[in-house]
Write a structure and sequence with these properties.
- The complex is a heterodimer of chains A (about 220) and B (about 200).
- Chain A has one domain: 3-Layer(aba) Sandwich (Collagenase (Catalytic Domain)), CATH 3.40.390.10.
- In chain A, the strands form two sheets. In chain A, strands 3, 4, 5, 6, 7, 8 and 9 form a seven-stranded mixed sheet that branches. Chain A has a two-stranded antiparallel ribbon with strand order 1-2.
- In chain A, about 25% of the residues lie in helices and about 25% in strands.
- In chain A, helix 2 crosses helix 3.
- Chain A has four helices and nine strands, in the order αβββαβββββααβ.
- In chain B, about 5% of the residues lie in helices and about 70% in strands.
- Chain B is built from two helices and ten strands.
- In chain B, strand 5 and strand 6 form a beta hairpin.
- The two termini of chain B are about 25 Å apart.
- The chains are: A alpha/beta (about 220), B mainly beta (about 200).
């Protein structure tokens, strides 16, 4: 065996040693409860969960042209998209509300109707609400999902602008499938959101949602 | 590596007659970039991509040559979960290696190299949300040269290279260690010089 051959074999062995071991996935324990618990159709409790399946992407989002909502909505889409590793969610703004999966209105939420589950956010400068309309048998989520964002203080104040921005992200988080509020004030999905972007806990939760089997299927009535 | 580059660029006089330059085009395939598990296994893999390789070499001793080789490849990459593929966009890779080559039999030559690889995704999102990544790379392979004209050879090359892959985004998300990635390429092209 020549010197060169011996060296080549040694090199190949070193390469083989390097090849050992794969990247190790993190333990995904950083998440909070996202499912909605409602009185069961046949008694007991029904657990409702939902995400936009790949066949429904990109999710079409329409925002009323008031209070800067289209810009806030566009930013919120980007914020949530960046939370995913594998493009599980994509959204796009649409100009025709009749084709949208999510509608964002610049006013306070109307009176609640039967079958609608409402999630409120309670920042002082602006209010937000997301209405989730579920079919009587608790198997379908009726789209479009309606979001209401209402500036409580004057729109042009910096604090209101900040509130509108983070509330839009928060409410869109509900429309994406986070059906509950986080108990942690550092999360964007805290009931009174104070941070402007999803925390690692928010990201862990939304990531989990898009990999667990949903109980609701989006249906356009 | 840089001294080789400088010598080649300057066309160092004593070696000018024996300097060799080459360019090849071909295709490259790679093993998985990533294996994840959320509720089921998720694999991220590059698609087979077109590639261009170019470089040059100078004689080292009687039978050996040393040189540099650069490759550029651009293609898609995707994730697979439960047999469902999701397009993750376009991924470009570039490599630069310093290599040594020598004869095997007649027109067949072996090739070993060491260098680096750089990844750049067209879109800074997902596993590349914090940008591309770089790593060390080891390569090996063989070249088959067929003389077609005075001073010109047709060259067919097979390469295997290996590196470890991770990104800043994966590290930020708690992925530990890195993924061993092997790549195989086949290419053909022309070379000028050698004889």
């Amino acid at each position: 065996m020549s010197v060169v051959t011996r060296r080549l074999l040694l090199g190949a062995a070193a390469l083989g040693a390097l090849a050992c071991g794969d990247i190790a996935s993190p333990e995904r324990t950083d998440l909070y409860e996202w499912r909605l618990f409602v009185p069961g159709v046949g008694g007991g409790t029904d657990t409702l969960s939902f995400f936009w399946g790949r066949s429904r992407l990109p999710v079409r989002i329409w925002a009323e042209d008031a209070a800067g909502l289209p810009e806030f909505a566009q930013r919120a889409i980007g914020v949530w998209e960046s939370g995913f590793l594998y493009r599980e969610f994509r959204g796009e703004m649409v100009s025709d509300s009749s084709t949208a999966d999510v509608l964002i209105f610049a006013n306070s939420a109307p009176n609640l109707t039967l079958g609608v589950h409402r999630l409120h956010s309670m920042a002082p400068e602006c209010s937000g609400a997301t209405d989730l309309e579920v079919s009587d048998d608790h198997t379908q989520l009726l789209v479009p999902i309606r979001i209401f964002i209402d500036p409580v203080l004057p729109e042009d104040e910096p604090a209101t602008q900040t509130c509108l921005a983070l509330t839009t992200v928060h409410e869109l988080g509900h429309a994406l499938g986070i059906f509950r509020h986080s108990p942690n004030p550092d999360d964007i999905m805290f009931a009174d959101p104070r941070v402007e972007a999803p925390s690692p806990l928010d990201r862990g939760t939304i990531e989990a949602i898009y990999h667990y089997p949903p109980t609701l299927e989006p249906v356009r009535p | 590596m840089w001294s080789c580059l400088l010598l080649l660029a300057a066309g160092a006089h004593p070696a000018r007659a024996q300097a060799n330059y080459f360019v090849r085009v071909g295709a490259i395939g790679a093993s998985k970039l990533l294996q994840d598990f959320i509720t089921s296994p998720i694999t991220v893999k590059q698609s087979i991509a077109p590639m261009v390789a170019f470089g040059g070499s100078l004689p080292v001793g009687i039978s050996y040559r040393a040189g540099v080789e650069a490759t550029v490849a651009s293609g898609g990459f995707h994730s697979t979960e439960n047999d469902v593929d999701t397009d993750l966009g376009t991924l470009r890779t570039g490599t630069l290696t310093a290599f040594l080559e020598g004869p095997v039999v007649e027109r067949l030559r072996w090739h070993v190299g060491l260098g680096g690889i750089a990844y750049s995704a067209a879109e800074e999102s997902g596993i590349f949300a914090q940008g591309g990544t770089t790593g060390f790379l080891a390569a090996g392979g063989a070249d088959y040269r067929y003389p077609v004209h005075s001073g010109w050879d047709v060259i067919a090359s097979a390469r295997y290279d290996y590196h470890r892959f991770t990104t800043d985004e994966l590290e930020a998300r708690g992925f530990s260690h890195s993924q061993g990635v092997g790549r195989v390429s086949l290419s053909v092209g022309i070379a000028r010089g050698l004889r």
